[in-house]
Specification:
The complex is a heterodimer of chains A (206) and B (259).
Chain A: H1 2-17, E1 27-32, E2 38-44, H2 47-52, E3 54-68, E4 78-85, E5 98-102, E6 116-121, E7 134-135, E8 142-146, E9 166-167, H3 172-175, E10 176-183, E11 192-204
Antiparallel strand pairs in A: 1-3, 3-9, 3-10, 4-8, 4-11, 5-11, 6-7, 6-10
Chain B: H1 2-17, E1 24-35, E2 39-43, H2 56-61, E3 63-75, E4 79-86, E5 97-101, E6 109-110, E7 119-122, E8 190-191, E9 203-210, H3 232-236, E10 241-242, E11 245-248, E12 250-257
Parallel strand pairs in B: 6-10
Antiparallel strand pairs in B: 2-3, 3-8, 3-9, 4-12, 5-11, 7-9
Classes of the chains: A mainly beta (206), B mainly beta (259).
Chain lengths: 206, 259
Amino acid sequence: MFLRKIYIILFTGILLLVKPSFGQLHCGTVDIVPNTSVNELLTFDSFSQYQGGIVINSVARIRVRVTDQAVPDPLCSWHLYMIVDNNPGAGTPVNEWEELTQYGNGLNINPPINSLEIRVRNGCQTSPIDGVFQTFTNHGDIIDIIAQMILITPAGSCAPNVNGPGDYLTNYNEYNFDIDIRVKPSFQFNPGIYQLNVKFHLEENP
Amino acid sequence: MRKFKVYATALFIGAFATANAQLIDEKDVTITMDLQPVLQLEMTTPNQLEFVFDEINEYYSGITQYGATILKVSSTVSWDLYAVGRSTGTNGPTFWDQQIDYGNNNPNAIANLPLSLVELRQNQVNNGAGAALGAFADYSAQFSPATTPSGQNSLYVNAGTNTPPTTNDKYIGGHAGTSGVAGQDFLPGGSYLTQTGTTSDYYYSIDYRILPSLPAIFPMAFDATGLVSQDLVTVNGAGAYAEPGVYTMYVQYILLEDQ
């Protein structure tokens, strides 16, 4: 009986010291709404499209929803970035679009990843890269939209780097990000069908 | 007690085994790009040309039509451009089609006039022919004097086939071969629309000349290499001359991906 009491006290103390984790640190939920995939096909079949490029505005909308826990944690914040993937497992060179098929004789070069330009914008211009087309260079390159940082800028600030709990429904201009893409092919690219994947990653800050 | 130890130990292990992990969500945007090859050759000039030889001096000096054809190139891939003489084959795939014959059908009057008697001259040098091996890489040379037969401007003929010129023959732009080295055997993708300056690799003005001479044997007719004469005397023997009449043929301009 005495030993039993000792065990109870001992293990209870250890459990209290060990921080119980339920899969989160500070926030309640972290969501991109909706998080379904977007597929966009750009077809270049006229000279004017090659010369002028194709711009797709709002090809996707990243709508962020970050909620507090039942007992709000003042440290709840989040960061958002985009990362490019060209399926290197298929043998794709690190700096090229993935080749799905090729027309012609293939004597020229395949399009490089940096021929894709991507722009992020919202009404409050919360991202430091808001409104400016960005490019990736190699597979795995990351571009921060809202960088991971200690300073928490709360929702409603309509200021750079808003990263506190909030919702696109209540603060649309801070928690909604419109994504635009632009491609202006060079005349030196091999004709064919190519593919790239851009993954948007939302995560609470530790 | 033993069961209690087991349960307590399991709970203890479970407490340490539970990991801290940030909440994460992701969304994928997949972009597929279909680059279709686009090659456009525009010809804004009339497609019918007439050469009427009814004066002696026209037989001696020939008839030249300057700038009779303007070619404008737009291409999204590396390209070659060449010209080839063709007919419907009435007299054979390498000869003009005779529509009407005049005269008395003298045995020395030859109706089989070689397509290569047509001469072309392009307004600028072919800047994509560095690897050409023949005597004449393009049609940029000046028309030779009437007294100096030369195949430097003689039109390429392939006997009605689809065979493009070889490295020994003439191209207007680019050339045979796939070295992949700029300037050697292709011209890069682009368009006359974006070119500036007084010359452009995407814009060509073509002059035509036909010089029958007297007698009318067409001394400027040569084979594809420009080295072997195809005038009527060389081919048919002494005393041969062109049978008077009306003849037709056509020049086909072919723009294709570098090959």
